[in-house]
Amino acid sequence: MHMNQEDMERLVNKSDRQLFINDLNTGFGLSIVEAEALYDRITLFNRDYYDGSRGPGQITKTVVALGEPAGKPIKYCRMVSVNLTIYHDEDLEVRQKHGIAAERRNKELRLCDEAIDQGGVLTQEDLAILLGTSLSTVKRDDACLMKKGISLLTRGLVEDIGRGVSHKTRAVELFLKNYSLSEIARKMAHSPASVNRYLDDFLVVAFLHRESYPLLTIRKITKLSERLIMEYIGLIERAEREEYGDRLKQLMDQFDAHVTFKKTLNGGMR
To answer: Is the pTM of the predicted complex or chain greater than 0.85?
Structure first.
């Protein structure tokens, strides 16, 4: 059934996030901004302290462990269980702004990232099953993303020809090249909130890397995967060599102004 703009907006307003925010606004007198900030803080708390449990919209799936050779039959591969987010509140926003195909590709990128971050890797067949679509559709999505310079990190790519650059790193690189958040969101069919989150994570990694924190400590502080941290460090080094080093310096100068963050690291985990 085709959904018009009014139907889509009604669904967005009924999301778990929006219902919670509305309840804080009407029941406890918080402003929308305060309610959104409280929701985001609770979400971060849950991510930091209950990382092993399944969150809203997630399922648990058994997948091939990262590191198993691409040609090895799956029945002989080591397997791991991973939590995958089938539905996220931002999915409706992406569909509303960019269409169903963009929403599906956004989900494919997210699912692949989540699997790798937990030590597993998905196949294109896994994606087709998880999203209720055909293998040929997933292959077309992969080709479409490749044209944009984005890698869909499925088993064939990761284990056979090495890991490509993730969409998160690609989004941050575009920002360093002076694209605006809205331009990046439109170009990559992401929500602006997602792009902003990637940038925030990148700046924390850049700060800690500049302060010579070791990789394991950066991972512990940021809760990011080693893979993504190394991609971000590679981007930092590339930016310093190329024409957008000034943009990186400008962002880092702004980040340095956040003295509160630095204080949380005093006497910390070197």
So the answer is: no
DSSP per-residue string spanning 66-114: TT--TTS-GGGS-EEEEEEES--HHHHHHHHHH-HHHHHHHHHHHHHHH
| Closest CA relative to residue 170, chosen from 179, 162, 161 | 179
- Measure the CA–CA gap between 50 and 206, rounded to whole angstroms: 26
- The alpha helices in the chain, defined as continuous H runs, are 5-13, 16-28, 32-49, 89-98, 100-117, 124-131, 135-147, 155, 167-176, 181-188, 192-210, 215-222, 226-241, 245-256, 259-264
**Count of residues making up the chain:** 270
Domain locations along the chain: 5-160, 167-264
Cβ(176)–Cβ(72) below 8 Å: no
pLDDT band, residue 160 (cuts 50/70/90): low
